[in-house]
Amino acid sequence: MPLGYDITDRKRAEEALLYSEQLHRVSFELAPTGMVYVSLDGNITMVNERMCQITGYSADELVQMRVGDLIHPADREHDAELVDSFLRGDTSSYENEKRYLRKDGSIRWVAVVARMVTDAQSRPIHSVSVVQDVTDRKATHQQLLASEEFNRTVLESSPDCVKVLDASGRLLMMNGPGLCAMEIDDPALFLGKSWWSLWPEKSRPQIEAALDRILHGEVAHFEGFCPTAKGTPKLWDVGVAPVRSANGAIERIVAVSRDVTERKLNEVALAQSEARIRLATEATGVGIWEWNVITGKVRWDTQMFRIYGIDPTNDGLVGYSTWTGAVLPEDLPRQEEILQKTMRGVENSCREFRIRRPNEREYRHIQSVETVLTNAYGQAEWLLGTNLDITERKQSDQDLRRANLDLEQFAFTASHDLQEPLRNMAIYSQLFEECYGHNLEEEGKQMLGFIVEGAHRMGSLVTDILAYTQLTSLDHEPAMPLDVGRVFGNVLKGLQRTLEESHATITYDLLPTVLVKEIHLQQLFQNLLGNALKYCKDNEPPQIHVSTLQQDKFWRFSIKDNGIGIAPEYQDQIFGIFKRLHDKGSKYSGTGIGLAICQKIVERYGGRIWVESKLGQSTTFHFTVPAVLEE
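Above: the chain's sequence. Below: its structure in token form.
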């Protein structure tokens, strides 16, 4: 006769075990944090997909590694102390914030919480770690998530609000961080309540729709508003998934909610900022455009339509030909070339071109600035730019240039016209002194000397003014590559007599090639070397050194002497026209125009000039001019 055994309890235990394993597996994979199983000797045995995303390694790669391999070298010593304490049983859990080295070499900050899993005899088997990427939180100095003692399951370790519901949607369990996020002091008041009853009336349709999808075996995701138990308004990003029993029936539901209130507030702040920018651009007349270089769609704001004299479209979309048709044909090829170069180089650009509006004969001057936004692969995806109508400014610039030319012509003519009477004054004063000086008393001779000295000084002043006004006379001629060594040698020849009389020594580095007109470079060296020789000490021969240094697209020249120096309070004044630091009667002669000429030359080429000096010790003049760049 066959024997029969009641195995109902065993079956129930098996089903409970299957359910527990599936619940754990779903929670393991659904968790928005990294989940890691680590053996007692530190080897990784199992990870979820989020852990792969955090580290950049695949699951197959991670299970071949030790957990210590992921830790930044600077954090390993401290981490090892915590791990040792955890393994010895000194602490019931392991908690630490540290840096991970991703596969690509980048660094991510992570918050790790681990608990020990034991067998029936309470012997440790392995640990379970929850890894949260907190890099963004670190970078933006947001408030650190409170580190608390985890005394529950893996679900309790998640920083998100994790709820376990029964098949009808009643709350069975909520993890500790979720209770905190929902500001629930007494969980017993909420257990057994239907999930939708926790939400406000207007959000319940979302909950019912999510539960309906769950009952059809699908995963649901939505965003909804739900205040906390204490009334704090919050917006949640919710993911919901079913948990099936061994026979496939849906017995439990797992819902994971993340607080995205701050993100939404930032989005609102961004939208408000964009609205303010639109108002600002409209007030300043700046038009904004965007071009998706992948789809070819071009969108203009209302100001762009005003600038081009075109009626706005409903959605702001225009064809690329709308722009090309407005640009003057002679300007278009160069503008398209710049745009293509900007996209290939993934850089910013600033350009000017001319357009003609519909039914208008006169063209308008447009200034355009654009920047490139790239996709995840570093390819140009968006071109964002601004247009500004600068026609009136261009006209003003032209009027100003004409006025400057007239003024320079007047100064040039006046300087020439003054030279002749000044020469006559000096010559006839000297002749008068030679012929009749013996009849003059000492006071008369002194007065005559003042006249001669004044005429010579006025002549020098007129000559320097003429040189100053002539600086822009060659602007229409492009600068060609110039050998600085050759120009410098010519300047030294011109200063040969002064060098011999002062017993001066001039040394210099290897001199480069620059994009400066020869007459301008010659004026720079003549003035700066002349000053170094003039303002020397009485008892010490001048020692002058010229050094060079390339800085990006410019060469920097430094002329250092061992002269009398310049007091700090005067170092910002010396480049002004007619600025002199010594009395006219002193031994240091000059008109006070030389350094003003130097500044005007340097600024004409987009460079700058400045001085460093120690009174009584030395002075160094620095100036930069464009370098000749290799193609």
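The two ends are 101 Å apart (CA to CA).
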